[in-house]
Amino acid sequence: MVNKQNTYLSFGEKVAYAAGDVAVNFFFKFFQFFLFYYYTDSVGLSAGVVGSIFLVSRLLDMVTDPAMGAIADRTRSRWGSYRPYLLFIAIPYGICGYLMFLNPQLSMEGKLIYAFITYSLMMLAFTAINIPYASLSGVMTPFSSERTALSGYRFVGAFSGGLLLTLLIRPLVKVLGVEDEAEGFRLTMALFAVISILLFWVTFFFCKERIKPAPQQKSTIRNDFSSLLKNRPWQLLTLSYIVHGMYFTIHGAVTLHFFKYWIGDDSTAILGPFDLSTLFLATSLLFSIIGASLTKFFCAYIDKRMLVILAALVNCIIMVAFYFIKDSNLPLLFVLQAINGIAVGFIPVLQWSMYADTADYGEYKYQHRNTGVIFSAALFGLKLGLAIGGALAGWVLAAFGFIGNIEQDAQSKLGILLCFSLIPALLALIKIFIMVFYPLRDKTMEKIELALIERKGELHAPSQ
């Protein structure tokens, strides 16, 4: 029988795992909240071109993401299958992140090419380190409830990293760049790159892999993707996460534009180093930390699938409310952002825990475990949602006549408002519809866990 006590995770190991997502979100949250603004208002690229960069660069991920998952699944080392990548890819990850913000003095065509190449390289490094990082959660413990707790710690780290980035990015850009915003971004992101490297190493040194595929499993690429394509829970979960990525990105991409062109965000004299857009984004992330922290508690009473549906419903209602509030009631805008932040905090905790459930389901149903491929495809879905959301924001703003750093007319302001409110509301509604059909319930997972433990017997962790 399995020694269950050895498969429950210590507080220290959970915190060490969360450190990795702090590192991830120093860049990922920048991509969601600031990168669109950086390319349009600091570099000077057009909104439509930026949207196209985001989408076209994702074509490479169609190959690299599943390939990375398959490679990680087949890696055998003294540290396990997934941890080595946290050690060796951390430095390239930091360097690629820094290169995105060099902003060399090139022609507009040269800046476009440079942006596309460096963004694509960063996404490649992001794939190489984040797929093993995400997959690690699926092999640290065999219990779904414990993975949910681990996922809670992870996203407290993720939202904390995003909160730190959001609070510090604008003040640091102003202080380090003085009058040169692009130079401020370069120096600020160099600092975050160094911190990210160190945090990934914390995860490497203090986390362990405990779950291995069954010895008799035949790990071929064909088997990996055959079992994946038959895994209906994974398919629905990935589709819902693509939509969630679109929702979160299109709203986040235009938040700075909303405050700059709708609210008139020139309030630094009152708010010190922070402007309203910074505080608005920070409000969401602060309350997302609360939501992520509470997820484990609510899971004791409500099925994970239903919690996702309820959270998405809150997202939908609040996005509709934003459309009608506009700039008429700033305090109410912040209150609703806080409530929305709590709901946003639930979703990634639940869904990444559910991805590990789909890996268990695939092993139970088809006698084939492909944790890395499961999580690589999940990450591709999230990045695809990020890309489509960013592309939609760019294309909608371009269609409504938006041009950065000028006074916006009523039509271009309407485009910003739609991306900030009603379009995300529609996407949240679509997510609810998808999750209604998700078949795995918590009670089902309890039965699957016990069946897999009995089938595989004792679990063996790597020696170091």
General description of the model:
The chain contains 20 helices and no strands. The longest helix is centred in the last third of the chain and has 37 residues, at 330-366. It has a single domain, classed as MFS general substrate transporter like domains (Growth Hormone, Chain: A). The chain has helices spanning 11-33, 35-43, 47-56, 58-74, 83-88, 90-99, 108-136, 144-177, 181-206, 221-229, 232-253, 255-263, 268-271, 276-299, 304-325, 330-366, 371-399, 410-420, 422-435, 442-456. It starts with 10 loop residues before the first helix and ends in an 8-residue tail after the last helix. The protein is mostly helical and 464 residues long. Helix content is 78%, strand content 0%. It holds the Pfam family MFS_2. Belongs to the sodium:galactoside symporter (TC 2.A.2) family. This is MFS transporter.
Concise summary:
This is MFS transporter. The protein is mainly alpha-helical and 464 residues long.
Shape: globular
Please, how many domains? 1
Number of helices: 20
From the alpha carbons, calculate the radius of gyration and give it in angstroms.
22 Å
Question: Oligomerization state of this entry?
Answer: single chain
Identify the CATH architecture.
Up-down Bundle
Order of helices and strands: HHHHHHHHHHHHHHHHHHHH
Mean pLDDT: 83
- Give a quick account of the main beta sheet: strands, pairing sense, barrel closure: none
The named CATH superfamily: MFS general substrate transporter like domains
CATH fold description: Growth Hormone, Chain: A
